[in-house]
Every structure is written in C-alpha cells, then in structure tokens.
Amino acid sequence: MTDSAPPSKRMKFGFFDENIQVVVGPLRKRFNLHADILTTRSPYFKAAIAKRASTPDPPKDEQGSSQTTALQSTAKLGGDIELLDVEPEIFETYSQYLYQDTLDFDAPDDLTLDELVSVHILAAKLGDLRATNMAIDQMIKTSDKQHVVPGGSLVAIAFAGTSSESSSLRRLLVDFYMYEADKQVFTESSQLMPPAFCKAFMLRYIELKSGEGDAGFKQKISTLPACSYHQHDSSCPPCQ
C-alpha cells in the first residue's frame, strides 16, 4: 500500500497572519500556530477560531472604560484554545505534520505504532481526515517494515479512543489480526482485547468466510488498495 493522499496546496503565511495559542495537556503547554493552517486542516479549529472572533465586547462602565480583567480581555480578543486532555508530545507531532505535511520521518525520529495510533485518535477528533489517512498509511508501513502487529494494549487504547464501529482505525486493527497475527501473538494479546474488538473481529471473520472462503484470509495489508482504510470528504478527496 502506498501513500496516495492527494497533494496539499502550499500554504503561504504573511507577516500579519494571525497566530493562535493552543494550550495542551494538564500542565498547559503552549503551542503558537498559524490560524490559516489550523482552519485549513481541521473543522474543529475552524469552528473554535470562528467562535473566538465572535466573542462580544465586554460592557462599559460610566466612564466608558471596559469592565474586564486582563484575562477576560484576552478571551475577548480571541484567547487560547485548550486541549487539556491531549498529550503535548502527540500534539507536537500533529503540529509537525501541519507544517511538514508528513508523518513519515527518518530514524531516529520515526514514529512508533503507539504514537501513530495516538495521532490518529487526535486527528479524528479534530476532523482532520488527511492526517488520519496519513497515520493509517504510516502504521501499515511501520508494521510491514518491522514485521509486527499492534499489541493488545494498543488495540485497547485505540478502541477506547474511537466510538464508531466504522472507524478506519478499528477496521485496520481488526484486519491486522485477521490477516497477519499468528497464534502466539493472538494468544498473548487476547486477554487485553476489549469486547468491541472481539465483536468486530467475529463479524469480519463471518464476512470473509461467507464472501471469499479461505482465500479471503490470504491477504497482506500492505498490498491492498491505498484507499482501503482511508476516509474522505470534500476537504480530502479520494485517492487517485
């Protein structure tokens, strides 16, 4: 499988482009990012930034002075966007993707399967389908290169971080175990698998067994069509 996500337009930033402060994690680490790149990639950030812009002016006192504290004034001008339940390291990786348009980094900066799952979960919550597709492609590439499948604890994290049965990440993890996990890996991971995974696995087994027989199990994920686990909409058109 190759990364066939359509090329993105080169983003140009002017001297007066607005910067946005994104506060991440319980320790409130700050990231200073261009508003244009956030709104272009993420419907979540687009809505949050639009909400900041529509914040009404604070009331005036009898002398016409603003009745507001410095903190409220910051909120009035836009303020920070908070993602306090996100790990700063994962948001930093997402920020690198925003500016470099890739999740495929050279060693020793290449991402682990754990990191890629976390990036996918974050990108899905932000509505950034291009990032979710890139994370999927990189997970497949990493798994194929290292000859490993995600362990049971990582599967549990992925299923806890997604809610839809049609999640592309869930489908990929099910197929990893359907096509490529051996008996030992499955046995070692089975105690950690959430019930939702077990249900999805059995439904996938029935689907393959009834549709293609035993031949349906003789697949390698890296050889499947590029769009097999992708999601698309108007902002992220189908792969060519």
From TrEMBL:
Coiled-coil-forming residues are none
Residue intervals of the BTB domain:
18-107
**Lineage top rank: taxon:** Eukaryota
Protein name as it appears in the record: BTB domain-containing protein
Organism annotation: Elasticomyces elasticus
